Amino acid sequence: MKKRFALLLLVLAAVLGALYANGELDGLIDRFREKDPHRIRLYGNVEIRQVLLGFRVSGRVEAVYREEGERVASGDLLSILDPVPYRIKRSEARGAMLQAKAALDKLHRGFRTEEVREAAAQRDRVQASLDLAEKDYSRISNLFAQKAVAKSELDRASSQRNALRAELAAAENALALMREGYRREDIEAAEAAYEAASARFAAAENALSDTELRSPADGTILTRVTEPGTVVGAGQVVYALALERPIQVRAYIPEPQLGRVRVGMPAQIVTDSSPAPIEGTLTFISPTAEFTPKQVQTEDLRTDLVYRARILVEDDRDGRLKNGMPVTVLMESIEASEGAASR
Fold this sequence. Notes:
- By secondary structure, this protein is an alpha+beta fold.
- It has 3 domains: 35-49 and 245-342, Elongation Factor Tu (Ef-tu), domain 3; 53-82 and 210-240, CATH 2.40.50.100; 90-205, Four Helix Bundle (Hemerythrin (Met), subunit A), CATH 1.20.120.
- The chain contains 7 helices and 12 strands.
- A hairpin with a 6-residue loop joins strand 9 (266-271) and strand 10.
- Helix 3 runs antiparallel to helix 6 and helix 4 (113-145) runs antiparallel to helix 5.
């Protein structure tokens, strides 16, 4: 009797070993698990977000540094354009900005002390000339009254006196303006010109920095589209990058199972290539029903209504999940979770 029992154990062990060797044991276990009324099984595909990378400016590609399949970190240099044309534009913009700044500083400082002194001296010289002209006119006027000089002499003296009076008024006005400084309107116009020149310089600097194409996030190069020497336009695709995060699974919840799940529930993601589950969280359930998509690999082909769901992968350091990969999502139902919590 004992020998028969031992022989039976050996046969059972051999069968289980054969199933394990052929990879059928996991499937057998899964089939038993499917009968668990508290376990929910969903089917879907991995979605890894992709970014199409290109330069923000146009130019000739000078170098490309990364190849397809290479992993890159955020900020890594991927490619550069010929920077010479943009360096020239930046130098021109910088010169215009410095020129506008010098003009503005001149207005803010006002006239130099030497210029004010010169204007005052000019006013004094004109005043002295006018004093002489006034005396000359008074003398000639007396002589004309005595009929000692001609009318033309009186007219000449009068014209000279009037001209010097006008010149004195202009000199005094110029001196007053110098002492008051430049007009506020002129200063505001110069300030606006300087701001515009500064903005053009900043734009030139940004354009120069945009000749470098850097990775916006951690990821893997999917495709490299451009070769060195190619002239590309602004926005033209140079690389396609698959982001490392976030990785999510698009799955579909059958309508009868909708009331047994809720957002925030933990989930396990299983692939055909690896039996070890990957942890995730149910983060979204669509409010709109749809028919089962054709690409979903379900064991029972049906046209029932389903609700699109998104499961966010918490960690895939091994890189087992690939874009488009079919996966199975396992979750405990709400009643199972509440029952475990009550115990």
